[in-house]
Amino acid sequence: MVTFPNPTVYEVADRADLGTVWEAARVAGVRPGTIRVWVSRGKIEPMPLDGGEPLFHLPTVARAAQVRPGRPRRAA
First vs last Cα of the chain: how many Å apart? Predict the structure, then answer.
C-alpha cells in the first residue's frame, strides 16, 4: 500500500497538476533519483495513465516531501 496515494484520474481537475519525474523532484526539492526511490519504497506512485513517460500528481508529491526521514525523537 502506498503511503501517499494519488487521487483517481477522474478527480484530477487540471492537467497542470501532473508532471514528469523532473518536475516532481523540483516540487519536492529533491533530486529525481529520490523520487525514484520513493516510488520503489512505496511512498508515492506514478499516475496510472496509458503509455509514455510516468507522470506524478504534483500536489501529492509536495505532501510527501513535507514528511522528513528518520525516527521520531523520544519524549523527554
Answer: 33
Query: pTM score, two decimals?
Result: 0.83
**Sign of the alpha-carbon torsion through 41, 61, 34, 73:** negative
Tens digit of pLDDT for each residue in 12-60? 878 889 999 999 999 999 999 999 999 999 999 999 777 788 999 999 9
- Neighbour-count burial of 29, counting CB atoms closer than 10 A to its CB (0-12 exposed, 13-18 middle, 19+ buried): exposed
Q: What's the chain's Rg over C-alpha atoms?
A: 13
State how far the Cα of 24 lies from the Cα of 37, in Å rounded to an integer: 13
